[in-house]
Amino acid sequence: MPWTPYLLTLLSGCSSDWTASIQPSPDRTKTAVEIVTRSGKERRVFPWPVWAVQRGDVDGDGCDDLLLGAHKRNRFDSASRRRLQVWRVADGRLHPRWLGTRLAADLDSFSIDSRGRILARERIGDRWMLARWRWRKFGFQTDSVLIDGASKPSFLACNFPKGCTMTSTEPAPRRRIHPVVVVLLVLGLLGAAAGGLWKVIGSIRIVSTESTGFTSSNDFLSLFAGEADTLPSYLAPYHKDEEFRFEFPTDVPPPRMDTTLDLGKFSLEQVRYLRAFVLARHGKLFTDMVLRAFFQRFSWYQPIWIPDDFEPKLAPWEKRWHDNLLVREEEIRKDSWHEIDGIRQGRASHLANAMMFDTLPVPFLARLDSVGFAVVPGTHRQLWHVYDKNQYDNVPSLVTPDLYLQLLHMHFKYLVKSVEREKLIPALRAGLVELRGRLAEPVPPSLQPGRVRAEAGIALAQAFLERSEAPLAFLDPSIKDAALSDYRQGTDANGFGSAILQDTLLDWSSLLPRGHYESSDTLAGYFRALKWLGLARWKMDGPNLPATLAMAQAWSAAGPDGPLGLRTIESFANLVSGPSNGLSPADIVVAREGRNLADFAQDPAAAKSLVEKTLARDPARIRAKGANPIAEEDLATPFVRVFPLRWSADAEILQRLVEVKEKKRPYPSGLDVFAVRKAGPAREILLEWDSSTTTWEGWKDTLEILQRTKELSRGTDFHSQRMNLNQTLFSVPSKTAGFQKTPLWQRHLLVTNLAAWTLQKQENILYQEQANSVEAGEGGGPPPPDPKGWVDPNVEFWTGAADLVRALDSSLGTLGLRTVELASLHQEFLTDFAWLADASRRELAGQDLTKEQLDHIHWIGGRAEQLTSRITGIDAYLMGKSEESLAAAAVDVYAFNGKPLMEATAHADELWVVVELGGFQHLVRGAVFSHREWQAPQRITDKKWHMQVEAGQAPSRPAWQNPLFVDIKSPGPAKSANGKSGSDKP
């Protein structure tokens, strides 16, 4: 339709009817819009052309809004594109309602239905989507994706003359219901009946699980798996290196490279891979974890890491192609940002790691593109499980406050259990002295060589404990050098293999003091000594049996249960960490059935029977796994080890914000507590989602009174201090990522606060062998890539958490309850909060994180696992049988006629965000709490709640949380044609 003046006039049903006249300038670079209402008129000239106009009630307030299709640039998007704008007509004037950069991708056309929903045709890369969008307070969110595919959907964006016109060359529709919608409705009903592939819930919701244009594609991957090329000759000397040949026994030449590709059809990520391909063919060892993971899918990728300064030698034509790709990469990268509601957001179409995932559904990408983040429902039993999964799947981690709020909760819950650990250092010292004294006594000649080794093993534990070589001074000369070597490796926590044990699999890095054991030399020595006693395998095979028998004989001489000091430690470990997971010398003592242990050293048949009887007593449930046949055979060798109700502000708030006499509001909500504290959008959500807040006239008045009661909203007790800390999350720094500035992010933070409050309420109402895999040999292989990651940059929260821990430590000292263990654990938290705060400051200042900080983020799951294990006294690998196997809790916070209001946390959810790392947009993942609230028929215990959660019978989330979620399966790692993922080693 030519650009001529036209009049859009509809009865809106509002008290203030209006009409709009739209007139383009002669050169079509500007558009004049004139609004006429009962109170007057306004004429506004927009410095850009309008290509479509629509009228409809977008936000459901009963008044029509003016929808304009603008063709313009934005502050963070230099390209002139089609964009949607919503203007509100009030008081005879136009007021901006939503001036978004775009909905999910490049907008092609749009329309609005009678329910105020936007039907938009959009393009993402080389794919098209037809999606329906619904107004959600701050802007639009995906209501459903109707079509997702490579073909352009047949869609008529206007309904002129009934309310819309545009410059599209497509004919205007005449039907009341578009045939595409009819077909989709029919397919939706048939699909639901056939097997649930389509869901009909009021309206069609079809979520695509196909790969998008910029995720893993066999067509694109085929570029890296074509006809074999010739291996560059200058690489031959490097390939002869012993370590390289161990890692890559056979040369696999790289595929040929096509330099005639049309670069205009590739995404930023794909161009980046193509450029890296030039270097990968020459054995470039990528330090970028995304590039490394991508090329590790291909068997021809054989990177050279020795020497560490190796650089590829490109031919001139390769250099030109590489430079062309770099230029194209930089061109695309300039378009990595756009503006949504005045907020700078990263484009989901410009992700640098999208192809690392099996699929990124369009609704997920649309949410990321519009608000920068999405929450995906999770089934993670512990929050740190998400970070373990990140490490395995090569997904950069987002360190969330939720993770540390959970750890702090566990610490406060287990505070009393950790006090007794003060007794163990003196007990270990006494036990080692007694056991070594027994080993110094004469033995029959058949046990003498074994006695020497056994004594060296105990002396080594003493040396670690005392942090001195002195206990090794008087060892037999035949073993002394071996003991000294082991001591130095153990102290350095570096290398493999024990000379004393003749065990090539012992990993000395396991003796690196961690957790609170880093806080003092004494604790570090205790850690190494006990760790050595727990890892040292005294084997019961032929050549090693004498040493094991000598150890058992000395153990027996101290009593059937061994030295008193070690029994003290064992009793304590049994109390806090459960039963033994393996055999000790005591089991040999029992299995010998009264015979002299020296006899077994000379009688192979008897020795075999002894081993069998000992193994019959083996309680081990967790065993190491071998990564190759040699290690498997070694690990299969039998062995033993030496060591195996008060007032609260929130309760009052809940009590006072109800009216039960006439049942106007018989039940409060956890949101009431946060509304009183003026935290986030709690009040607004209550007014929208809880009808009792408006039907009971006393709610607002009482709420205002409570808000003015200082001790209710800002108390000074420890519980209130923690609430105050949690509430700092709502104070988002001005220089932080764009997604953290959206109203939807505030709603997410409210979920975090509710979940943390739930755990705190439960604290007030209610009161560890490691699994491992090994590979025989000297190790080796390319060094790991540099990790990537991001910390939620709320400095106020991280520093406030440190202040809270210091206050707790001081209070415990005043009460005489602070032990060395607790002080050390507090120091662990303080150390973490210090680097998290520093990392946050660096992010806000636009600085790169340090290598140490990125390593911390990469291993954050293991760190959280370690802290959880220390706090609870339960090894993480034994936790599956304990009450702490599931990081979920339920607590009743209010009751009406015996029917409680339950607050609960369930499985951990996944938080996906788009952040800039190293100049590129990356998709990163973190763990967040889930939260439930419901009125239960009776109070339930955690055990019952865990059963409900595991059985999928947990109540639904509160409806106000729904806008946070994209209901998809968590994106997994992409697979190559041979089924190998980027996380697999070539």
Q: If you had to describe this structure to a student in words, what would you say it looks like?
A:
It is built from 33 helices and 31 strands. By secondary structure, it is an alpha+beta fold. The strands form 11 sheets. The chain has a 5-stranded antiparallel β-sheet, with no helix packed on it. Strands 1-2-3-4 form a 4-stranded antiparallel β-sheet, with no helix packed on it. Strand 3 and strand 4 form a beta hairpin. Helix 11 packs antiparallel against helix 12. The protein starts with 5 loop residues before the first strand and ends in a 36-residue tail after the last helix. 45% of the residues are buried.
Give a brief description.
By secondary structure, this protein is of the alpha+beta class. 38% of the residues lie in helices and 18% in strands. The N terminus and C terminus are likely disordered.
